[in-house]
Design a protein that fits this description.
By secondary structure, the protein is mainly beta. It is built from 1 helix and 9 strands. The strands form 3 sheets. The chain has a 4-stranded antiparallel beta sheet. Strand 3 and strand 4 form a beta hairpin.
Length: 153
């Protein structure tokens, strides 16, 4: 998902200067012959948003997209460290990951700490699955090694 020029009706951490603090995802990719392992550590520095995650009202989301196999899947978790394993048969060539913080339920009167002063004291109504944070993107490549099947006879 491209988020370069995303504009939402509520403040989003990691998007311009909407909210003070930090949200990013550090990722390590492990490739073996049969699977791909993605280890992600979510780093979130904002009192309000950390509390929402701790209470299960917000979740971290990894959006994985592989154009070559047309596989697209989203994983969500409240854990700050997350591991997922995918069979290598599901992926080929370029794989794109996008990292988000999303509402896990409707949030009335949403006004996170550190909001840009241009928002004033305004409070927002956020719906379940709305984006609360953009944690960046990552790309990796899955190269296939073809095995010689040998002669039939």
């Amino acid at each position: 998902m491209r988020i370069n020029e995303l504009s939402l009706p509520h403040p989003v951490i990691g998007l311009r200067d909407d909210i003070a603090g930090k949200f990013e995802a550090k990722t390590e990719i492990g490739l073996s012959k049969h699977e791909v392992e993605i280890n992600t550590e979510f780093i979130l520095f904002n009192e309000t948003l950390n509390k929402l995650v701790d209470e299960g009202k917000a979740v971290f989301c990894i959006d994985m997209n592989c154009p070559a196999t047309m596989m697209r899947i989203a994983y969500s978790t409240i854990d700050y460290k997350f591991r997922v394993r995918i069979p290598q048969t599901e992926l080929r060539q370029k794989v794109q990951l996008s990292f988000f913080l999303v509402a896990n339920q409707d949030l009335d009167n949403y006004g996170p700490s550190g909001m840009n002063k241009e928002y004033g004291d305004y409070l927002f109504s956020v719906k379940k699955s709305d984006v609360l944070g953009c944690g960046g993107q990552a790309t990796f490549f899955v190269e296939k090694t073809w095995e010689d099947l040998g002669a039939i006879s």
